[in-house]
Amino acid sequence: MRNRAKTAIRFFVSIVFSPVAFFLAFCFSTVFPADSGIFGSEIRTLEGTYLRLRTDLPSSTEVDGLPAVFDAAVPLWCRFLGINPNRCDGWKMDGCLIGDFERFERAGLVREVPDLRTGFQLNRKLWVLEQASAYYRRHLLLHEGVHGLMAHVFHGLGPPWYAEGCAELLATHTLRDGKLEIGVIPGHRDEVPMWGRIKLIRDDIAAGKGRSLRDVLGLQPGEYDAPNAYAWSWALCVFLEGQPEFTGILGGMTNVLPPGRTTSECAETFNERFYDRIGRDVRSQWEAAWIDFAGRLDYGYDRERARIDDLSPGATRWNGRNHQWRVRPDRGWQNSGLRIQQGDAVRIAAAGRFRLGNRPATWWSEPNGITIRYDRGRPIGELQMTILPGPETSNANTAGDDYSRCPFLNPVSIGTHCEYTAPVGGTLFFRINDSPADLADNDGDVTVSLEKASGNTIPGS
Predict the structure, then answer these.
(1) Residue 246: strand, helix, or coil
(2) Which residues are 387's β-sheet partners?
(3) pLDDT tens digit string along 388-438?
(4) Of 223, 251, 395, 411, which one has the greatest count of Cβ atoms within 10 A?
(5) pTM of this structure
């Protein structure tokens, strides 16, 4: 880190390399004679195809297998970034994994490092300080490797959010039984000791420092002195790769990377082209979807099921007639296709019995929810509604880039019935409340009906 899909929808890529690879890496991680003479007997060299790693750490399967992990990651990075693997022929990073910094200073191996806190990359060289977590050691090594590959192929890294977000995305990984997967959302914090990106985002939001889409795109190099900027850049890249509309957009942006150091003007031009690609006319809707993602982000977040599939304005404008939909419990916000106007008074009713999970036992729920378990302060299983204003709406009270006002994070509790007066016009969305990490084993649906209100309604706020 610098001081300075299973399907086309859910991104991750994986590669399997057998335990034999680790054994061979271990066997060839001997101390080369040249190292003993030049760098001292306490620094040894581990050789891989794409990484030559010098370290003073004791020999172990975990440490000595790092070049094999790095080699396994490179084809996956190439696939994601749209790089022809032939471009990597002859490319190799010189790395230092440092236990005792003074030892590497004496050996003259850190002269080019201005201020090493965790990791650093310069051209074909990288440096990583030893970490208390084997996961985070690998993560930092892969993070700096992504920088090195992008600098080699594209001769530039782009604005900070893109450079660090891609590096974080392609370094966040699982390694189980010889299978490396990158681009994952970790299932539990115990899988990624010292990583902490999700906690940083949660803490920022709780402190009123949640970042909008434009905030992340505007991150400045100096802000990466703190880990929070890395967390937000990672989250944005995960969000983008989880949207079918944006699949491949991060890799596709490499063709507009400015060469060399990215000036503020170059970064602004890059970001403008990014906005062109996501669609300026629906920018406010994507801001709201991004804040829904960041505001509910958790370990095990199910990108395929929790994402909002359709953000388009409802095709039907409500004219007072009755409407009916089915809402599924194994999905996030679901577009009703119906637009209502500010001041419309409606009655919404819901009926149905559905399953929320099956471990350790099946939980059955109705639209009022299960009051022995909560998510975001409301019972799981509760039917909820919100109104997403269209892009033409300019009322500041409906802003999608404010966590305290984002419609998806401030739903109306419907339960089995509710009479409601719309505070703003827009498209109706429904969902059944549950953690975005617990959607996979939900099943069933709820029938939701809407008609003109006949009595007193709950005023929108």
Answers:
(1) helix
(2) 428
(3) 998 766 444 444 568 998 999 999 999 999 999 999 999 999 999 999 999
(4) 411
(5) 0.89
